[in-house]
Amino acid sequence: MVDQVGRRAPWLLLLFVGSGWAALIYELVWFQVLELVIGSTGVSLGILLATFMGGMCLGSLLLPHVVGAARHPLKIYAAIEAMIGASGALVLVAVPYVGRLYSAHGGSGAGGLLMRGLACGICLLPPTILMGATLPAVARWIRATPRGVSWLGFFYGSNIAGAVLGCLVAGFYLLRVYDMVTTSVVAIATNGIVAAVAWALATSMPYTPGKPSTVLRPGDVPQRAWTVLLAIALSGLGALGAEVIWTRLLSLLLGATTYSFSIILGVVLVGLGVGSGAGAWVAGRVLRPRMALAVVQFLLPAAIAWSAYELTRSLPYRQISAVASQGPWAGFVVDFVRSFQALAPASLLWGASFPLALAALASINQDAGRLVGRVYAANTLGAIAGALLFSVKLIPTIGTQQSQRVLVACAFVAGGLALVPAGRSSLGPATRRRLVAAALIAGTTVAIAAALAIGPVPPGLVAFGGTLASKEEMPEFLYVGEGMNASLAVCRYPYGMRTFHICGKIEASSEPGDMRVQRLLGHLPALVHDHPKSVLVVGFGAGVTAGALTLYPEIERIVVCEIEPLVPPNVGPLFREENYDVLHDPRVQIVYDDARHFMLTTPETFDVITSDSIHPWVKGSATLYTEEYLALARAHLRPGGVMAQWVPLYEATAAAVKSEMATFFDVFPQGSAWTHNIRRLGDDVVMLGQVGPMRIDVPRLNARFESPAYAHVRASLAEIGIPSILALFSGHLGEQAGLASWLANARINRDRNLCLQYIAGLGRYADERVRMYQEIDPARKIPDGLFLADASWIDDLRQAVAAAHLPVAHPGG
What we know:
This protein is α/β, with parallel strands linked by helices. The protein folds into four domains: about 1-210, Growth Hormone, Chain: A; about 220-315 and about 345-455, MFS general substrate transporter like domains (Growth Hormone, Chain: A); about 460-500, no CATH class; about 515-805, 3-Layer(aba) Sandwich (Rossmann fold). It has 28 helices and 14 strands. Helix 2 runs parallel beside helix 4. About 55% of the residues are buried. Residues about 210-220 and about 805-813 have low confidence and may be disordered.
């Protein structure tokens, strides 16, 4: 039987490459689809990942019990692959129905968590259970000998190799160029091809079942198997926990774009795949695989310390500006190499653990399917625990430094468990005790040294990310924190400016240009609306946008949706003067949730919906710029309600800006674009839309603006260089008709493609502000009917617009 496998090995390995390729494509698509339904908070993603991996765990355990050993393994494998393809198509059909069910009953609290889990379970459990069953199904073709277990390790490694290809091709090409349906069809077609080839191979490869293994003799299973299963569970916990930590740290360094996440996942999978292949080779040749497994676990603390050193003390201080100037694709290659340098040692060792655990538990009469199912299930259960524990609990509570020390402890304990004797041994008791003692002493020494070597995350990395190496001196850090969803910092410079950083980039600041756009996002929609009473603000930032809205006496309720719980209580007080102490205004309610999820699950409507500055190239932010999100927001506006959305021109390409503006106009066809910038560079645009035709009654608005009740509003606008209504509206940039020719080739950002996150991710280092501004400027004019005012005021406005938008010929600061 093994000889037949050897002759057909290339085909079997290719089958598992195809299976892994399809599985990772599904994973990326399904995660993207379900984030739109249940939100993208740390809790939501933890539940999503736990459901995905939990299904694979169930599949690996159930297959050997549900399907008898007498059936041809390759035919079972072919049937499973065909059913994965069918369920992959079903998920695409089912998600809209599940989304409607969830939006009707979802929410916050325990009930909301239950509904999140139910939504994930309905969509993901059927296909992931099938995915988890593939390796145990084929494993029955292999006898549980050292050579057979080695083949199982190679199959596992080839599956991961396929996953690497799926991750990179889907993350960098399929989802960028096509939509999620097309990408899913590629995976479905792959499942069909794999199923057909497996069935064809089955007809030419006779199968003779081994001995029945429903009831095993005591000698058929090594004694104290639970110690190896617990060790491989801790290995899975450490591997997924490390991935969570590495993703947090590397996203600071590489930028939190969707491309960076694909690079990190790809690098980890490469390490696991190569390590699995190496472990499979070793497993077929060593006499004591338990000892080999223990050695691998005892080496892991050193590898974890190496990764920590590279991510916090080495890579952040290396200049790569020359590479970045060559374009994003050159930067991606360098990012992959740098990431591999940091993550490869630990990933290789975790990858080698799986085949060594198989070899440690293998016995000649054992059902290989059950062997693989048990080991795979233990490893996956550990991975589920690691994903949830580190993302939801440990990082927010003790930070990444201490969390990495927890990884060291897990590896040390796993090594100790692997050393527990399995029963009879050819070594004498004294010799065995000496070997175990020596291994424990060496492992303890490495673990202690590694734990002490792991240093804290530099505050400069949290604040400045990949640009840290170019900073000659550091500001004063008023606050640094690592939350459930992001790492953040607040800095103060000697000349008094304060900056709020999240994910390695500036989110808000007290700098005049930033203050202008932050306040405009509050003032502009509130003034355009006749009488706003209820407001929703997406994102807290430094609290400046929400704070501007507290100045309006008629506003009765302000809801602020913030995804990271650390932001309001730690950042808000440090910008108390700029945000008017917004946190202590009794009208303000902070909701810690993804804004899209909040709107999906609340019946509340608002007069104004606006947002703080949330950059679209940050992974997950593009969902707040889709046609469907804007339609959802419009549905939550009361009659006459106003929607405002920030569009950055810096760190952006024209393609990204066009996509954002065209998508907004698609939902608000009578909307308009506005800008104000002290340096006249057009750094920021505010899109403004209204339910119904937008008509600004200037005399009525002037009466409001000049009333005593609006004294604080006038003062707030004056502080940012806008002393009057005329000055405010001089920021008019254009509307759909005037910008139609510039937006002609824009891609509409929709839920099913989320093209913006890929377009925007390519423009992280771009500076096309002046060129875009100059292309837009000729189309600028005051449209008829927008302002209800006399002819002289309109003439004054036209002159003010011309003066305010004089283009410049250099990019400037």
